[in-house]
Amino acid sequence: MLEPVVKRCVGLDVHKMVVVATALVEQQDGSIKEETKQFGTFRKHRRQMVRWLKGLDVELAVMESTGIYWKSIFASLEAAGITAYVVNARDVKKVPGRKTDVSDSKWLADLVRVGLLSPSFIPPRDLRELRLITRYRMKVKGMLSAHSNRLHKCLDDAGIRLGGVVSDIRGVSARYIIRGLLEGKKPQELVAHVHGRLREKIPDLLASIDEPLSERHKWLLRSIDRQITALEQEIMDIDDYLAEQMIAYNKQIELLQTIPGVDFIAAVMLLVEIGPEMECFGNAHRLASWAGMCPGNNESAGKKKSGRTRKGNATVRKVLCEIANAAVKTNSQFKGQYKGLVIRRGHKRATVAVGHKVLRVVYALLKSLKPYMDPAIDYSQLVVKRNAPRWLSALKKYGYLPELAKAA
Question: Kind and range of the H or E element at 377?
Fold first, then answer.
């Protein structure tokens, strides 16, 4: 029988409008007093719940991290000084027991009482609120990409192949040409104002926009252009607000920007998601596991099965993959690692591996508070060193070594 580690605990089953709380209080004679109450989720109801918990002198409260309804409950408990665990629902379901026959709140209280649950990482309140801003920025950026794709589609539908000539349909020259076409200007007049390497493509530009626009195409293009302009301004406003709100973390942001592929926004988004303190994760391996950026561990009877990554923090995964795609284009260890993996693992898996490496570097930088120094590791050489014996034995097995010796 498991020994209790928490004498006075409560399990909270949180819904949108209702919180069911089951408290387990150990009496002096060793018996357990169980009490269940139901509260609303409005502010006055949360205050009632806090008063009830303080009256019971509860040591620990636990709830599942499903949805977003737990956030206001956690904030109320945090403000009242009550220790609260937010646990992964997957961990709760993995523990054997009568999960379907008893209430969720009672089951949570039973598990945390005997120490079978561990808390999930919850950043400080300041960063929790900034998460709303950074994730909203990601959503706005996705909307901007969707409108850019719609702009491509509308132009192609009209027979204008501008997207096949310019590299960025939202670039200065491309936007000037599109707006000029909407105003009825001639193609020769429009291409005279392009600049940079695009001037070398003037013949192709003239051919790509040599098509009249119907009034309906013009109406839709004007609408899309207004939306793109508004979304670009929205992103600029968000960036300015984040720069103002993250002043207290300037040192950590500057450190993260020393990593190849990490700009100001990427550094801010990583810092908001994982926080500046690394002690809560323990080590870089646990941080990578929490983010879902490391291979899965699935082995049975000595046979390794699927090693696909587990579900983790989707925002961190997306940011790290974007950083990895930028880092592999720089002269750094990440470029060598990518080239050593992409041939046999493919682009996507190699990108995740590079993102995993970046996250481990982020952990080391935030823990030591020292800037990044590229070790210039030759990953191609490491791959050859690791696989050379196997390659040589295969060449010897199939009789290629004598021919290679003669050729040499």
Answer: none
**CA 157 and chain centroid, separation:** 35
Q: For CATH 3.30.420.10, list the domain ranges present in the chain.
A: 8-120
Q: Are 77 and 62 a contacting pair, CB within 8 Å?
A: no
84-87, strands of its sheet edge to edge: 32-40, 18-26, 8-14, 60-64, 84-87
Q: Residue 187: its pLDDT value, please?
A: 82
CB 41 within 8 A of CB 102: no
Q: Is 25 left (phi over 0), alpha (psi -120 to 50) or beta?
A: beta
The three-class DSSP label of residue 30 is coil
- CATH number for 126-245: choose from 3.30.930, 1.10.287, 3.30.70, 2.40.50: 1.10.287
- Of these ranges, 275-279, 302-306, 402-406, the one predicted with the greatest mean pLDDT is 275-279
Q: How far apart are the first and last CA of the chain?
A: 72
pLDDT of residue 198: 83
What is the phi-psi region of residue 87: left when phi exceeds 0, alpha when psi lies from -120 to 50, beta otherwise? beta
Does residue 199 register a pLDDT over 70?
yes
Residue ranges, comma separated, of all CATH 1.10.287 domains in the chain are: 126-245
DSSP 8: E
Mean pLDDT of the residues in the chain = 88
Fold adopted by 8-120: Nucleotidyltransferase; domain 5 (3.30.420)
Under 8 Å between Cβ of 289 and 310: yes
pLDDT in tens, 202-237: 888 888 888 888 999 999 999 999 999 999 999 999
User: How many other C-beta atoms can be found within 10 angstroms of the C-beta atom of residue 125?
Assistant: 12
Rounded average pLDDT over 184-194: 83
Give the residue with greater pLDDT, 108 vs 407: 108
